[in-house]
Design a protein that fits this description.
Strands 1-2 form a two-stranded antiparallel ribbon. It is mainly α. The chain has three helices and two strands, in the order αββαα. It is elongated and about 150 Å long. The protein is 88% helix and 3% strand. The longest helix is centred in the middle third of the chain and has 80 residues.
Amino acid sequence: MPAAKKTTKRTRGKNATRANARSSKLKTRSSDYQYDDCPDQAGSEGEASVSSDINEGDLELFRAAFASVKSKNTKKKNDEFLKKNQALVDEARKQAEAMELAGLAHIEQLMRGFETISQPSTNDDISKFADLVGNRSASSRELFETSKLSLEELKADYDKAFQDAEDEGKLRCHFRASQS
């Protein structure tokens, strides 16, 4: 079918070109309004019309070949694009399924946690906590008492050292006063 269309177009082009070539043999000059026969120009235009017909035919063939190559390249690119998109869609589905499974596992874990929290507690848990707090309280109380005692001893030692230094200073002042 495309070949028939091309020949039809080519035929129309030939006829139009030949008709134009024949009508161009007569020219009007605007200066003197006379008709001239130009035989040497008409021959060259006739040859030009034949070569232009051949060129138009070659151009039509070239256009058809280019269109078929272009459509093949377009189809190939479209196929590659569709394959890449399908791969991306498949990968996204896999990731969505993995995320869904991870989400379901997390929700299940949370539900188990809420179930354990919502169960009534036993006194064992409370007593263990109280023992732990009591042990820490006792040890911190002991540490506080020990540090308080050591601070009091340190204060007594400083007070004694200051008193001894003051007493010695008074004795030296007294001794110098007695020697002078």
